[in-house]
Amino acid sequence: MTEPMHRVVPETSSGPLKIPADQELLFREVLQFFGIWKIPYAVAGAFAMQQHTGIFRDTKDLDLFLTAENAAAALGLLQEAGFECEICDPVWLFKAKRGEYFVDLITGMSNATIVVDDSWIRRARPAFVYGVPACVLAAEELLASKLFVARRERFDGADIAHIIYGTRGKLDWARVLHLAGDNWEMLFWALILFRYVYPGQTSFVPFDLWRDLLGRFENLISQPDPNAEFRGSLIDERMFAIDLNEWGLNNLMRAYRERRLKNLPTICKQQ
């Protein structure tokens, strides 16, 4: 008799999850504070996924996307309100905690390739989160926020596929391309995965977009640049540690992060 498989990640489900009362109270309180303080933000993470795909996911945290300046201001106010607060990484992550539950204030990707700006907040859509009026990240920004979550211990490719499937591809694809920027190959990779998973829904990605990305890719591989930079660290510098530490390849993520840190306001580093 074979042993049952261990569930490493929660199964996807359309059934709402019941969270502990203390956790819900924390989330409601933070959202209400942000409304009172008039801090612009957008709810991301599991709550945004549910809005755009119908998928419920167990979570111990509340992910809020906002600009670095607003994250630093919010952290100070939350600390005054009695939360345990810290800057986990000034490049992208601030945290407010009470007990075992916490709120993440996220200002971009950890590799500094994608940064939250005011347009992310302006494009957020109104919604109720645990009965509190809030703003939820638009599907395009939610998709972009997952492009570089491709590590051994966590891979958000399925989330991207579910966003496209759940919205039936009714996305502002020009906006998605803009957010991906020079990293459009990561988007292309995610779209190929979507096509593999949902071959019957290939048309959810516009044909013009397929043709554009295929043309770009064909140009790159037909005229390869031998001096092009190694980019493995942008995905995960641990998985590509040998490239950095033993093979002498440049750590592009370090350069991106140093540039981001240099451009951050002082308040973001001194809470």
Question: In summary, what is this structure?
Answer:
The chain has 271 residues and is of the alpha+beta class. It has a single domain (21-224), classed as Beta Polymerase, domain 2, CATH 3.30.460. The chain has helices at residues 21-37, 45-53, 68-80, 118-122, 139-144, 157-166, 173-180, 184-197, 207-222, 232-235, 241-245, 252-263; strands spanning 42-43, 61-65, 84-89, 93-98, 101-106, 125-129, 132-136.
Characterization of this structure:
This protein has about 270 residues and is of the alpha+beta class. The protein has a single domain (about 20-225), classed as Beta Polymerase, domain 2 (2-Layer Sandwich). It contains 12 helices and 7 strands. It has helices at about 20-35, 45-55, 70-80, 120, 140-145, 155-165, 175-180, 185-195, 205-220, 230-235, 240-245, 250-265; strands spanning about 40-45, 60-65, 85-90, 95-100, 100-105, 125-130, 130-135. The strands form 2 sheets. A 5-stranded mixed sheet has the order 1-2-5-4-3. Helix 6 (about 155-165) crosses helix 8. It starts with 20 loop residues before the first helix and ends in an 8-residue tail after the last helix. Residues about 1-5 have low confidence and may be disordered.
